[in-house]
Amino acid sequence: QVQLVESGGGLVQPGGSLRLSCAASGFTFSTYTMNWYRQAPGKERVLVALITSTGGFTRYLDSVKGRFTISRDNVKNTVFLQMNSLKPEDTAVYYCNTNHAYGVEYWGIGTLVTVSS
Fold first, then answer.
1. What is the Cα–Cα distance from 77 to 75, expressed in whole angstroms?
2. How confident is the model at residue 105 (pLDDT cuts 50, 70, 90)?
3. What's the CA dihedral at 97, 68, 10, 42 to 10 degrees?
4. pLDDT of amino acid 103
5. How far apart are CA 96 and CA 107, in angstroms?
6. Secondary-structure breakdown of the chain: helix, strand, coil percentages, each rounded to the nearest 5
7. I need a surface site. Which of 6, 49, 102, 105 has the fewest CB within 10 A?
8. Alpha-carbon span 41 to 49, nearest angstrom
9. Which of 63, 84, 99 is CA-nearest to residue 13?
């Protein structure tokens, strides 16, 4: 079965960095676009970044452009989110996601990122 397992979250001071990882299994990772979403307390879940199957195209939420970088390793079946210059408003649970045929979506359980001094 499809599994997405996020890691790398934690507490960081404003201006700091974190690197999130999402280990995928149970499907042909190299053929699917992968997404990172986040959900802040009391807010809706929003798409933060996506990367196409070969890594040739990426897209970012406006508020993270220039600070976050999504990448993937199709040998290790892992997608990454490098987050630099973190701000308190980046505090959220970050989720890995992939969309498959017939509208089927898969989600990880999320990893909490807290940006606070």
1. 6
2. very high
3. -60
4. 84
5. 6
6. 10, 50, 40
7. 102
8. 19
9. 84
